[in-house]
From TrEMBL:
Domain VWFA: 141-403
Membrane-spanning ranges: 16-35
SUPFAM superfamilies: vWA-like (SSF53300)
Lineage: Bacteria, Pseudomonadati, Pseudomonadota, Alphaproteobacteria, Hyphomicrobiales
Domain of life: Bacteria
Protein name: Pilus assembly protein TadG-related protein
Pfam families in UniProt: Tad (PF13400), VWA (PF00092)
Keywords: Membrane, Transmembrane, Transmembrane helix
Species: Bosea massiliensis
Length: 414
């Protein structure tokens, strides 16, 4: 007996099998995790689709069903989607309806029971999904801030800009499903901008700009007046030239300087409207003339999208489901403003105006047509992908169409 015990103690045969047996458990468990994780991913995909569908359904039915009815419908839809090819069960869900903001949030969670992975203690994998949708009418306000300077007459730029703008207007018109759902302003700019003379009595205007004409003994200086004003407006005093700060009666620096027209054929601004015929008329009337002041264009584009004077048509930035956009297009460098600044300073003013617009919640697309400061315009855009370089004017049409479709597209908000 002692001899048998001694041989058993020293015998090493079978150790490999025993070691493999001990190692096999975690290896099988790890393989099981991979398998079960794949099952969980499949369930998550199904749950995401179920929650998205429920959110959209609630948004569509919100105007005619009560909150209780909507929640019941959402639960039924989630369960029906999960039952179609998934072993997961619905553990819980929430449907939060905000009728003031016209939004619905749907969340759901499930549990995937593991198979092989439970050998290492993982009995289940939690899965969750959330989606938000909105109902009612998405509204859009868009400012087209378009270079109308003399250089736009070259390389077929103005012709292509008009065609592209008209294409954009058609796409936006076709996308509009309710009155005033989409409204657009047009801001043609050169060194100044121009308004209809019907604004001549506006309290936010000031009449103190002068000009000198003639020479020698015929030289004379005259001051602009309501009677001689043809609608042109120059830069506001700094720093108001790059902001939409309110004009305050009696505070001269905050007022808008009515001025003699440096470009008498400059097309007047068209304030926000859904009158598509009027917008088309403004586009067709654009004429290339004068030098470049991108700052005043950006400032008035912002003004057309802001509530209050000088252009009061815009809705409040806090309006639910409203998005404001600006398309800023130019074909050249800054060359002239009211202050006689050099290009570097003018570029700084333009950058400041773009920053003010973005701070106000306006999303900016910027377009450089053949010439101009690429870095400046890229910085003006809200995102790098919203800046476009145009090397040939014929490219404007496809770019405007792409932007129009991006703006008018309606998606889930989360």
């Amino acid at each position: 007996m002692m001899s048998l015990l001694s041989r058993f103690r020293t015998d090493r045969s079978g150790n490999v099998a025993m070691m493999f047996g001990f190692a096999a458990v975690p290896l099988i468990g790890l393989a099981g995790i991979v398998v079960d994780y794949g099952r969980a991913t499949s369930v998550r995909t199904t749950l995401n689709a179920a929650v998205d569908s429920a959110a959209l359904m609630v948004a569509r039915e919100a105007s005619r069903l009560t909150d209780s009815q909507l929640k019941t419908r959402a639960e039924a839809l989630i369960r029906a989607n999960l039952a179609g090819g998934s072993t997961a069960t619905l553990d819980g869900y929430t449907v939060t309806i905000d009728r003031a903001a016209r939004t619905v949030n749907v969340s759901a969670n499930s549990t995937v029971e593991t198979s092989v992975a439970r050998v290492i203690g993982f009995d289940s994998i939690p899965v969750a999904s959330t989606a938000q949708a909105a109902w009612g009418t998405n509204t859009i306000e868009l400012a087209l801030v378009l270079d109308n300077t003399g250089s736009m007459a070259s390389s077929n730029k103005m012709t292509e800009l008009k065609k592209a703008s008209l294409d954009l207007l058609k796409i936006m018109k076709d996308a509009s499903t309710a009155t005033d759902q989409i409204r657009i302003s047009i801001v043609p700019f050169a060194t100044q901008v121009r308004l209809p003379t019907s604004y001549k009595d506006a309290p936010w205007l000031r009449y103190d700009q002068t000009r000198t004409t003639g020479s020698g003994g015929n030289r004379k200086t005259e001051t602009i007046s309501k009677a001689t004003w043809q609608g042109c407006i120059s830069d506001r005093d700094k720093p108001n030239d790059v902001s939409d700060a309110s004009a305050v009666a009696g505070a001269t620096a905050t007022l808008y300087p009515a001025d003699f027209c440096a470009q008498s054929t400059l097309t007047p601004i068209r304030p926000l409207t859904s009158d598509w015929t009027a917008l088309e008329s403004t586009v067709n009337a654009m004429t290339p003339v004068g030098n470049t002041n991108v700052t005043i264009g950006a400032a008035w584009g912002m003004a057309s999208l802001s509530q209050g004077a000088p252009l009061p048509e815009a809705a409040a930035a806090t309006t639910p489901r409203l998005t404001k956009y600006m398309i800023l297009l130019t074909d050249g460098d800054n060359t002239q403003n009211r202050f006689g600044d050099g290009q570097t300073t003018m570029d700084q003013r333009t950058a400041a105006a773009c920053a003010s617009a973005k701070t106000a919640g306006i999303k900016i697309y910027s377009i450089r047509v053949i010439n101009g400061n690429s870095s400046l315009l890229r910085g003006c855009a809200s995102e790098t992908s919203m800046f476009y370089e145009v090397s040939n004017a014929s490219q404007l049409g496809p770019i405007f169409q792409q932007i129009a479709r991006e703006i008018s597209q309606i998606r889930l908000t989360m």
